[in-house]
Amino acid sequence: MASLDRLLFDHLASDPSGTIFTVERIADDPTHPLFPTLQQALDNIDAHAVATVIASPGFAGIYGDVGPAVQDRQARVNIFTEEVAKQICSARLTALTSGGAARPVPYDHPSVSDLELSEDLLVPLSSFELNGSVLIRNGHAFTPVPPVESPNAMYWFMSAVFRLGLQTSMALRLDPLMHGPATEFPRVFYKMWMYGRQLDLSTLTTMTEESFGRWLPSTGSSQTSEYTDYVWSPRDDELHLTVEELPRRESIATRGSRYFHAIYHPKSSRFIHTDGAIRVFTEEQWAARCGAHVRNAGKAGQRVKVFRLDEAITTEALTTLCAPYFVWNYDIAKFCGMDVPDAFLGSAA
After folding, report:
1. Would you write out the chain's pLDDT as a tens digit for each of its 349 residues?
2. Do residues 178 and 254 share a domain?
């Protein structure tokens, strides 16, 4: 696809609804200011690519009964939607991993320019007003960094944070692309039943060696991950939990791994520290990481911290946070206490 107009790209990248909705919305509204720009981009799509989409079984099953002109336009919309979504995800990773700026985007925006940044470029959640899934400060709306391609990937995690009353002790990374004036910023609402359970750690707190495993994704789960590793590691008087969902090689240009770490203190029966991150890989780094278990992977890739919680929490609260952080990973959902059909579960490796 040809180089995308900057105004159109910025508009699509800033919308948490996702391109699957925003592109269609503009394409169906000739009065939209960006309609002519989008129309030009659609016209520029290669005719052979359009014909390939129209001939695909999935497209024919949905649009097989409409006329050629409608098929042609819908195929162009589908191609553009998919391609620009990849460009947005790639731009997000570039913004997150590019160093040099004292206050990287969006922290250079006037509405948050007074906030002190942590070493990991996190800011206190308590500095913002929550409106649905949107964080508002000084008339401007922001969102947390989504750890995978879907712009709504942190929606359920944030809901859990506020349900547990942890907003005063949570720090998080703001997304560099999804922000805008609060009065114009889209609000999204989703429903999904997610909960945690009280883990039985009695067999783990007395162990002297690591306990670990790996899940391979099933056909019913997201196929953008290579596998998910976990390890319980005893260290002095603490027990560390590390979980990482490694993306497939073909996805590393648009997403990093989802990485989750927590420290359990047996004497208090509390997790005294919890944090989440993504790890962004080059081809070589991905290959090295893929050949090792997370317990032996070291500091593979470039880590971008997504959130940090310093408040001590129960194991039930821990699983209530872990499950939505790995939303759509059904093996982690099962681990955290959700009732998941066997067809959605991967196999142990």
Report:
1. 657 899 999 999 999 989 999 999 999 999 999 999 999 999 999 999 999 999 999 999 999 889 999 999 999 999 999 999 999 999 999 999 998 778 999 999 999 999 999 999 999 999 999 876 799 999 999 999 999 999 999 999 999 999 999 999 999 999 999 999 999 888 665 544 444 455 667 777 777 888 899 998 866 555 679 999 999 999 888 999 999 999 999 999 999 999 999 999 999 999 999 999 999 999 999 999 999 999 999 888 999 999 999 899 999 999 999 999 999 998 898 888 777 656 566 666 5
2. yes
Contact by Cβ (8 Å): 311, 340: no
Task: Clarify whether residues 229 and 316 are in a common domain.
Answer: yes
Domain stops at, among 46, 72, 97: 97
Q: Which parts of 196-256 are beta strand (E)?
A: 211-216, 225-235, 238-247
**Which residues constitute the domain of residue 305?**
102-349
DSSP for 159-202 reads: HHHHHTT-GGGEEEPEEEEEEEETTTS----------------T
Q: Does residue 1 sit within a domain?
A: no
Sort strands 134-137 and 129-131 into parallel, antiparallel or unpaired.
Answer: antiparallel
Q: Tell me whether strands 134-137 and 238-247 are parallel, antiparallel or unpaired.
A: unpaired
- Would you mind telling me the total number of residues written for the chain in this entry? 349
Please check whether residue 194 is in contact with residue 338, taking contact to mean a CB–CB distance below 8 angstroms.
yes
